[in-house]
Amino acid sequence: MLLSHKYRFWPAIGIAAFLLLTAVPLLLGFIYALLYSLGLVGALAPGFTLRFWAEGFQSRALWHSLGYSLYITLASLLPALVGGLVLATTLRTYFQKGPGAYLIYLPLVMPALVVALWSMQVLGQTGLVARLGFQWGWFADMRHFPGYINDGWGLGILFAHWTMALPFFTLLFLGMQDNERLDDLTQVARSLGASPAQAYYRVVLPVLLQKGRPSMLMYGIFCGGLMKIPLLLGQQSPQMISVLITRKVGRYDLAEIPEGYFIAVLYSLLLLGVLFFTKHLSPSK
Amino acid sequence: MSRLIVPFIKILFLGSLGLLSLFPLLFFLGLSLSREWFYPDFWPSAWSPERWLALGAEEAPLGQSLLLSLLISLGVAGLATGAGFLSGRQIAFSPHKAFLLRLAYFPYILSPVVYGACLNYYFVYADLSGRVAGVVLAQLMITYPFAVILYSGYWNQHLRAMEGLVATLGGRAWQTYFWVIIPLSRNILLLGFFQTFLISWFEYGLTRLIGLGQVPTLTILVFQYIGEADLHRAALAAWALMAPPLVLLWLNRQFVLKNTVPDA
């Protein structure tokens, strides 16, 4: 292209910005974490050693945390996914006009921090459920309500994640039905002799699941890195992986920092593998 | 029969949807306006608007924090949108598009706060830790890749042909951008601006880590109030936190729906 030399200046800023703000920081951060975990930098750095890696792999906190993150991710994602799918396909007309079209967007104005606060106020020991239960005589002693935050099953975390993910997936699938012209496809299937159920299970559902796969996958990966909600509603052990890393790295106990960076390196490599060896990860449009 | 059932389902459904989505907002409003709310009571025993009235008072931490957050987020959103728009063009036509976009996702999937923990050393070294400038830079590292992802999907051959057309007609590079491309892209520029604004507005982990708690944005303040068990103030701060997205929702529903990343 002969013209293109005229436009080289602005785009060059674009690439420089990408290198400066994304590529280089990613590399620098990784190098620092790697060197720290190998004992080469940091206060009390003992010099090159594989000790932190060996100890890290044997630490139970790491494996518990990975398993717990996976559990929270699946338990957050699947019910919200199914719920969103059902709401978007069966009650679609209510979301298209009237108050429903606005109400479904309202939960999106709540940041994770506020959702976490909300969950505390609903499920906590002196929360709304406890108040309601006491007023209605579900339990006699007001101290008997167990409280569902900071619990073993992470119910508080899950409640908060559902609050955020259900409207998200409902809106995602609602948008998709318009974009993919599913009404037309359904009509074709029906006129070719499919029953309503067949049209739903053979046409609508496969299209939505197929098209929604990148978003679902991304949301799933992001769940592991969610931070504010587990920080406020989770318990001390096991912790979500991002909470574990930041707690270890931010400790006053300097001996724990290399292990924290080891986990950060391991987690980055794991995600790098997922990111680069998974197809269909392109941004959803 | 179905004539009776359908309106019933509709009322039931809309009622519960309204309850579920409006209730948290009303609850926080009530909490911020109540003075006493003892445990087994379902209703506050005393009300007072004092916290809302104190918002405008000088040296009120919440008012100052609101202003600081607003300045930081507006700055971050402007920079991220501008740089992301330019980078998005280059990346959209790059042969390495797929690779670069996956890199752009990485700060998010790694979790902003873990990313920040790995970079903290450099911030301390550059003496940016505990300063507004450091927080702005850290938030740019999160919001800018988001803008890149958004805009690299937007640039297409049509826009490129527009650039060519302007050049053929004798336009300069800056004229192409300021008179043709930017006016054409007004909607998506606004979308990107508001969404990066919200990412920055809702940011907590990085701001805490890099700002060392000395840059008291609204989210830091909410966390602090929760830590102090001052739930009435936390509720008021939560309302301050939700006010901009509520306004954006009123302007255009698409502004608050990020279909690529959730709030970490």
Written description of the protein model:
Chain A has 285 residues and is mainly α. Chain A has 2 domains: 27-58 and 250-285, no CATH class; 75-248, MetI-like fold, CATH 1.10.3720. Chain A has helices spanning 9-37, 51-58, 60-90, 92-96, 100-103, 112-123, 128-135, 155-179, 182-191, 196-225, 228-233, 241-249, 257-277. In chain A, helix 1 crosses helix 13, helix 2 crosses helix 13 and helix 9 packs antiparallel against helix 10. The longest helix of chain A is centred in the first third of the chain and has 31 residues, at 60-90. The two termini of chain A are 30 Å apart. Chain B has one domain (59-256): MetI-like fold. Chain B has 12 helices and 2 strands; from the N terminus they run αββααααααααααα. Chain B has a two-stranded antiparallel sheet with strand order 1-2. In chain B, helix 1 crosses helix 12 and helix 9 packs antiparallel against helix 12 (231-251). Chains A and B meet through helix 1, helix 5, helix 6, helix 7 and helix 8 of A and helix 1, helix 3, helix 4, helix 5 and helix 6 of B.
Sum this structure up briefly:
Chain A is mainly α. Chain A contains 13 helices and no strands.
Kindly state the percentage of residues in helix of chain A. 55-70%
The first-level CATH class name of chain B: Mainly Alpha
The secondary-structure element order of chain A is HHHHHHHHHHHHH
Q: What's the number of extended β-strand segments of chain B?
A: 2
Q: How far from one another are the termini of chain B? A: 47 Å
Q: How many strands, which pairing sense, and closed or not: the largest β-sheet of chain A?
A: none
Instruction: Indicate the CATH topology of the largest domain in chain A.
Output: MetI-like fold
CA-to-CA gap between the ends of chain A? Answer: 30 Å
* CATH architecture classification of the largest domain in chain A: Orthogonal Bundle
Number of domains of chain A: 2
